[in-house]
Structure formats: structure tokens, C-alpha cells
Amino acid sequence: xxxxxxxxxxxxxIALCLSVAGGATETRSFAQDGGHSGNHATYYVDAHGxxxxxxxxxxxxxxxxxxxxxxxVLNPGDAVLFARGRTFRGSLVIGQxxxxxxxxxxxxxxxxxxxxxxxxxxxxxxxxxxxxxxxGILAVDRSHVExxxxxxxxxxxxxxxxxxxxxxxxxxxxxxxNCRVRGIDGQVLSPADVQKGGIVVCxxxxxxxxxxxxxxxxxxxxxxxxxxxxxxIVEDIGGFGGIIVSAAGWGEDAANRGxxxxxxxxxxxxxxxxxxxxxxxxxxxxxxxxxxxxxSTETPVSAGTPSGIWFYTCENxxxxxxxxxxxxxxxxxGGGFDLDTGCRNCxxxxxxxxxxxxxxxxLYSGYESDWLPVAFYANMGSVIRYNxxxxxxxxNGSTTEFVGTxxxxxxxxxxxxxxxEPYNGSIYGAQIYxxxxxxxxxxxxxxxxxxxGTVGTTGISISAYYPEVWPEGTPKAGTANLCxxxxxxxxxDSPAGTMLNAQSEGFTFDNNLYFNRNGQAxxxxxxxxxxxxxxYRAASGQDGASLNTDPLFARNTERVCGGAxxxxxxxxxxxxxxxxxxxxxxxxxxxxxxxxxxxxxxVIRLPDIGAYECIRVISGRTGHR
Length: 625
Hints:
Elements: E1 16-19, E2 25-28, E3 35-37, E4 40-45, H1 66-71, E5 79-83, E6 87-89, E7 92-93, E8 105-110, E9 118-120, H2 128-131, E10 135-140, E11 145-148, E12 151-153, E13 158-163, E14 170-177, E15 180-184, E16 197-202, E17 205-208, E18 212-218, E19 223-230, E20 233-237, E21 241-246, E22 258-259, E23 261-264, E24 267-271, E25 274-279, E26 281-282, E27 285-287, E28 290-292, H3 300-303, E29 309-312, E30 318-320, E31 323-325, E32 337-339, E33 347-349, E34 352-354, E35 361-365, E36 379-380, E37 383-385, E38 388-390, E39 408-412, E40 414-416, E41 422-424, E42 427-428, E43 431-433, E44 436-439, E45 458-462, E46 480-481, E47 483-486, E48 489-492, E49 498-502, E50 507-510, E51 513-516, E52 522-525, E53 528-530, H4 533-540, E54 547-548, E55 616-618, E56 621-623
Parallel strand pairs: 4-5, 5-8, 6-9, 7-10, 8-11, 9-12, 10-13, 11-14, 12-15, 13-16, 14-19, 15-20, 16-21, 19-23, 20-24, 21-25, 22-26, 23-27, 24-28, 25-29, 27-30, 28-31, 29-32, 30-33, 31-34, 32-35, 33-37, 34-38, 35-39, 36-42, 37-43, 38-44, 39-45, 42-46, 43-47, 44-48, 45-49, 47-50, 48-51, 49-52, ...
Antiparallel strand pairs: 1-2, 3-4, 17-18, 40-41, 52-53, 55-56
């Protein structure tokens, strides 16, 4: 949630290596010779050896400053290349768009080695009239733009910013590739003053030439589409977060949103707020990314209440093969992954969340504005599958709402609209299956003070009202209906650990495996705590095909074949299964389930319980059990 806490055409970067005297190589961001190639021009900039009086059409006649670059008019397909190893002071302002027919306008690097050219925006005057829009690279109302192989540092507000300047505006086909953004202040001075950070693409609020983001002017019918952030490093960032994309104006329904957002193979580290956030987007993807050591803000006003990687009001979108660890927050949240308010048919899969302050994964349905319909905020059709969650809930749980929650936490906002009508969020049709949860909270703490006021240390915390559905089939506020929790494996070493704290009859639990290695597992369902598995199952009618036994995790990796899943070098082999495990073939077949596990191993016949399929290595070959 935004609590004031955020055919596809893929343009590929081509590294062209040219042999030069002495065996050295010159590396350019784009495969294009100097000067003019057809109707496309390439310009060169060198902060040491250049001169703004030069032609700029070759490395030998390079320009010198960003002021010169900002003064020229580029045509679609033109490129500006900056000398590697040089530092350029000021801000790069992208003044023209490319076109789908002639190509993007491109900004990149040339020269020997791999050092990125540095754009240092720390020298921009720190005055009131420019403070709010200090950006290292700035593009407003620009489309068909490619930025590659550059480093940005020192800006007060944004590292790289692309935005929309007015209602009914749109931007599209923007690629940011292999860039590093570091040391951005990202000043956030009030609760409304969000979305400042490292790499920011914003179609939510108007961007004003002198005032920066006008958070009092929500855009209507604005869109950002076909946005690519690839192989970027974003670190040491103040403000709302590291990589932020809002693809539409606040409150736009799915038909009026942008989409096709792709954030891939990128790392965000040490932010004051969130790691990676995509908002108001359709058909989008976050894949192969890492967010760690984020959320260092001391007060919510400075960066909200952050999480690692999350969607807000997105549709048909996926987070996969990502990792979040050491996420913190000054208040609520502080967890790994989040499918938040208004998400429809979104998925978190093949991910690894560990050592975070609060939850591993959150499903949330909240409330942000009195003028939007209640159904707008419902969380519908979310899928959480084949994830490894361990060693989360590292906070002490004494002062914040979500600290100490389960590895999987499901929560609905509990409150009222301004005229007094009760409003509680809705979770509808969630499917949570084949996850492995290793639940060892740092200290006894309430799992979650849910709508019924229950507390307890849990592996999964469900907070929602009993199921009701509006006549037209949309979920009524305060409901959890037609939700599944299956094929999940929960293990704890905590003697006081409760396996689940389920308050909603809208969930079905089955084909799970629960095991407390230091005592009898206990369960809380419908407000009643059961001291053993048999009593819980008999009274609740849940988990009829589930197990309460040792899953027999693998003792070594010889029995297991790694695959193409999430960062296998960081995956603990101790969470895989022995061939003799009771979890093998004990899962239920999920109709829309994937055909591989978290490591890319095939799911054959009946699925195993948990995130790993047991694969045996036989005589140098891989075999399935």
C-alpha cells in the first residue's frame, strides 16, 4: 500500500569492441561508428580533452561539458557518448524524443575499459527554486530514449528521472541499462513529498520546470509504458526508494494505466526507503533483482514505511527470481515482498526473502482515499508460490504493527471512510502454495494484532473478516474468500512458535507439512489455540491431508540438481528434501501451477510439499526420485 510510508520490443545494448594499437580495446555503448551514419549522428563528449567549440562528431573533436550537450537538438536515432573514466559536472537534460520508426535518442559511453562516465550533480545550486528538481539525468515528456553505461551521483532529488508534465500525457519506450546511481539525497520533506530516489519514472504527478514533482496536482489519463531498467546498480539513496515506477495517475483503473514495465537483473542497496516499487501498471515484471539493507529511515515522514520489492495496484504482473534481505522500517512493513492494495492477478514466485525486520511476503488490501470505490482496493487473484522464506521477523515487535509477523502475512486495513462508513480491505482468491518457510523469530512477539485482536508468534498470519461477496461478484470490504494455502512446508525451532494464526473461514488449508523441531506444534484458528495438530485438525476441519512430521531436509547437495531459478549460489542446500522425505509426492496438483520448482527442477507427477522438488543424481545423471 502507499502508506505514507510507491510482442514486446526489447532494445538490446550492443557492446562494440574496436581493436586499437597496443592491444587495448575501445568499448562503446552502441554499435555505431563516429560522426554520421546515414541520417543518424553520434556526438562525443570528453571532460578532459574536449572543447565545446569542437564539432563533437569524433573522439578527437569531442565536446567538453553537459551544458553543450543540453543545448543541441538531437534527431531520432542520434547518440551522445561520454568518455569513460571522466566526470561531468551538472545535470544531463534530455531535450528530444526519438521515434519508433527512426530509433531512440541514445546516451552512452565510449573509450577504453569498463569504467562508466560519471555525471556529478552535486554542484547544482542548492536554492529553493531548483532544490526540488535536482536530477542527474532528467527527461520530461520524452519517449524512445535509451540511457546506458552511465553513473550518476550527487543529486539532491533524483538520480535518473523520467516523467510526465501534464494531464493526458504519456511516455513510452525508455530503457535505462547498465547504469549505476549512487549517493542521491532524495529529500522527502513532507508525507506527500514522496517518489524521490535513485531511478524514478513517474506518470502519477505532474513535473514542473521550477517546482519538480507537484504532488498536489495528480495527473489524469497519464501513462508510462514500455519502461526497461536492466542490469543497474542503485545504492546509498535517500527518499522513497531505489527504483520507482508509477505507470499512471493516482486512482486510474486498469483500462487507463500504462504497463509493460520490466525491471531486471538490478541491485538496490542501502536506501532510506523501499528497494523496488512498481505502481499502477499492467502486464509488468520484476525479475532477477536484489534489494538489501534498505529502509534505514528513522521516521515514516522521510520515506514512508518501506518494504523490499513490491507492487501497488498492478494487474497481471509478476515478481520472480528475486532476493530481499535486511529490509527495515521505522513503523509498519519492513518486510521482503508485497502484493499490495488493488493488485489483481499478480504473482510472487521463485523468490528468497531472509533476515528481514518483518514478514517475508505480504498480501495487503488497504484504503487510501475516500473518493475511490471500496472495490478498487480489493486484492484479487494473488499467487505466492515456490518461494523460500527464512530467518525473517528480526525486529522485537514492541512498537510496530508488522514487526514479528509471519513469513507470509495477509492483512486488511481496518478503519472507516470520512463519513463514518466502516471500511476493511478485501483479499479474494489468493493462492499460496509450495513455499518453504523456516520460521525462527528473533524474540517472542505478536504475529499480528488482527481484526479480531488475536496475537501469537506464527508462521502465517491471516487477518480478514469472514467471507462475503457482493451480488455482482466483486469482493465486499473486509473479506477473505476462496483462498488456498496448500503444499507449504513450515519448520520452526521456536518452542513457543504457533504454526498458523488463521482468523478467516475464507481460506482452505491442506497438503501442508508442519514441524517444530523443539516441541509440539500449536495452531490458532478462528480465535482458538490448539496445542497439537490432531486437535486443531479435528476442530477446524482444515489440513485433512497435511502432515505434522520431520520433512527430512537434505544433509548435502549430492542428491539435488540445481536449476535455472533464483540465485542458486545463495540458496541454502539444507532446505532441499531427501528422497525419503514424507513431503515427496505429498502435495496436491495445482491446476495452474508451474512446471518447475524454485531451482528450475521439473515438477513431475504429484508435486512435493515445499519450494523444492527432490531430484536425485544417479551415476552423473539427473533423475526424478
